[in-house]
């Protein structure tokens, strides 16, 4: 046993299905979760034109994370929760109110530190980790870098305002990431609050709460008065139980950077959420294309700690440079390996930047041709609601048993950075009808390899999609 197909695919930033195909050609039948031996992995790495660099005798590729954990080593871990929703619906207020429910806060005596995430302990001892950068921009930015830290999304909807454009965006983001939603119907203290309307309006966006016959949990809260926050936390724990979140704490740490900055006094500082293993003071680690030795670990209460296990948010001091949110953190044996891995990652980054857009109709076309996918994900932005409906309706009609159009998000308005982030995270092109992209969104699209196609005739848009889906896209684009 050496590495799973999935991990090998991740390391090489190749599709798992491509690896499986290449393995099949070599006469090796493997599924995505199966492990393959080192010799086979080496052949595959070469086949894909990646360089093999031995770090030690037993190690074939550079930034390999460790092997899969054994079932018996897994222990349950705290769920990681992101709060999303429309502006002013109370995301920040809810995060602040939830933070105050922490029973460990008083006894710790520490000062609340905003490090990008915090953990709350329930009276019963259970813990929940909250990412305290609300909104979907951070969520998708991380996801587009291949990092998914969120287990559960809290969708905040103000009961006096109901579903608004960013609520819909948030739903699209959570769905695209396949992360379960819990609805927090906020501002229920207001006389004009209408929670029933919220539940009904959610139906249109395919969020079915229990009262409407679905299985999405919802809780009526007031962040302002602190009502029902315990119920919200119970719902989170219930959802977490269903997800059966587990990790092996007894191994070298692997995690994700959720926030990073250059601090004047302390140097580069990164907040990390450990996925598995335990991070310790003195560990040598790689974070994206930076590395360091853990000089100190500081928790969300400003206290220095010696180690941090799965789902425990912690600031790391001792980095040689500032990594980026979404970067993968891996503890390695020694400095030499840390340098090798970062060199490799810097090279890899450069290679990636020079490849063709991954989120384009053309890319979708070749994926379909190779039967890697059976659906074409797209984002639709248009000038008026009528156009949005006409386009989504027409695209839905194109779907056949073999190929479906998967509309990740459709809305009125220009193309924003958030749209591009969602598109990048799901490798979906953006189809724009009579709208333009903001300068920042256009730059981001360029950087992330997201194609934005502009149309002024609905027929042309539908025709292009039809061509992609029927396998007859014209070569010239
Ligand atoms: P965000 O933009 O989603 O982070 O929203 P904020 O948390 O900043 O809240 C926006 C506004 O709504 C602020 O003026 C809050 O005081 C107010 N607000 C938040 N939660 C509640 C609530 O439960 N009840 C009432 N009445 N007002 C609230």
Briefly say what this structure is:
By secondary structure, the protein is an alpha/beta fold.
How do the helices and strands line up, and which of them pair or pack?
Blueprint: E1 3-4, H1 5-12, H2 16-25, E2 35-36, H3 38-47, E3 75-76, E4 80-85, H4 91-99, H5 104-108, E5 117-121, E6 127-131, H6 136-144, E7 152-158, H7 165-176, E8 181-186, H8 195-203, E9 217-220, H9 229-243, E10 246-247, E11 254-263, E12 267-276, E13 279-280, E14 284-287, E15 290-298, E16 304-305, E17 307-308, E18 313-319, E19 328-332, H10 335-353, H11 361-369, E20 375-382, H12 385-398, E21 404-412, H13 417-425, E22 430-433, H14 439-448, E23 452-455, H15 458-469
Parallel strand pairs: 4-6, 4-7, 7-8, 8-9, 20-21, 20-22, 22-23
Antiparallel strand pairs: 1-2, 3-10, 5-6, 11-12, 11-19, 12-18, 13-17, 14-15, 14-19, 15-16, 15-18
Helix pairs in contact: 1-2, 6-13, 11-15, 12-15, 13-14
The chain binds guanosine-5'-diphosphate.
Family: Belongs to the TRAFAC class translation factor GTPase superfamily. Classic translation factor GTPase family. IF-2 subfamily.
GO molecular function: GTP binding; GTPase activity; translation initiation factor activity
Binding site for GTP: 85-92, 132-136, 186-189
Listed once per kind, the bound small molecules are: guanosine-5'-diphosphate
Q: Mind telling me the C-alpha Rg?
A: 23 Å
Q: Identify the overall geometry.
A: globular
Question: Mean of residue pLDDT?
Answer: 87
Unreliable sequence segments: 55-64
């Amino acid at each position: 046993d050496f590495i799973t197909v999935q991990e090998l695919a991740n390391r090489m930033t190749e599709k798992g299905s491509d690896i499986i195909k290449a393995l099949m050609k070599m006469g090796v039948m493997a599924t995505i979760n199966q492990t393959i031996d080192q010799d086979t992995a080496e052949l595959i790495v070469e086949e894909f034109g990646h360089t093999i660099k031995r770090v030690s005798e037993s190690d074939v590729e550079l930034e390999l994370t460790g092997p899969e954990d054994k079932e018996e080593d897994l222990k349950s871990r705290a769920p990681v929760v992101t709060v999303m929703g429309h502006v002013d619906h109370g995301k920040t207020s809810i995060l602040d109110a939830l933070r105050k429910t922490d029973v460990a806060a008083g006894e710790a005596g520490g000062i609340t530190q905003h490090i990008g995430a915090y953990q709350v302990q329930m009276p019963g001892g259970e813990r929940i980790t909250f990412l305290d950068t609300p909104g979907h921009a951070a969520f998708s930015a991380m996801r587009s870098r291949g990092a998914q830290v969120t287990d559960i999304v809290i969708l905040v909807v103000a009961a006096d305002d109901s579903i608004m454009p960013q609520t819909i965006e948030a739903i699209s983001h959570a769905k695209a990431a396949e992360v379960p939603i819990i609805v927090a119907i906020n501002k229920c203290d207001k006389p004009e609050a209408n929670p029933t309307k919220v539940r009904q309006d959610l139906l249109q966006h395919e969020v079915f709460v229990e009262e409407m016959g679905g299985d999405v949990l919802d809780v009526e809260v007031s962040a302002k008065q602190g009502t029902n926050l315990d119920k919200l936390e119970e719902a989170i724990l219930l959802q977490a139980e269903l997800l059966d979140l587990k990790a092996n704490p007894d191994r070298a740490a692997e995690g994700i950077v959720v926030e990073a900055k250059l601090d004047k006094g302390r140097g580069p500082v990164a907040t990390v959420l450990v996925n598995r293993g335990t991070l310790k003071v003195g560990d040598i680690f790689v974070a994206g294309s930076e590395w360091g030795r853990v000089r100190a670990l500081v928790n969300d209460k400003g206290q220095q700690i010696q180690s941090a296990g799965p789902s425990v948010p912690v600031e790391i001091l001792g980095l040689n440079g500032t990594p980026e949110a979404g970067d993968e953190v891996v503890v390695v044996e020694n400095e030499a390996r840390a340098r090798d891995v970062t060199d490799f990652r810097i090279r890899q980054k450069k290679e990636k930047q020079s490849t063709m857009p991954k989120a384009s109709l053309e890319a979708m076309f070749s994926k379909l041709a190779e039967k890697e996918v059976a659906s074409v994900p797209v984002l639709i932005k248009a000038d008026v609601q009528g156009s949005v409906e006409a386009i989504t309706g027409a695209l839905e009609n194109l779907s056949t048993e073999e190929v479906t159009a998967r509309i990740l998000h459709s809305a009125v308005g220009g193309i924003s950075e958030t749209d591009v982030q969602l598109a990048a995270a799901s490798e979906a092109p953006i189809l724009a009808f009579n709208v333009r992209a903001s300068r920042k969104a256009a730059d981001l699209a360029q950087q992330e390899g997201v194609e934005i196609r502009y149309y002024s005739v609905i027929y042309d848009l539908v025709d292009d999609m039809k061509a992609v889906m029927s396998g007859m896209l014209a070569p010239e684009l």
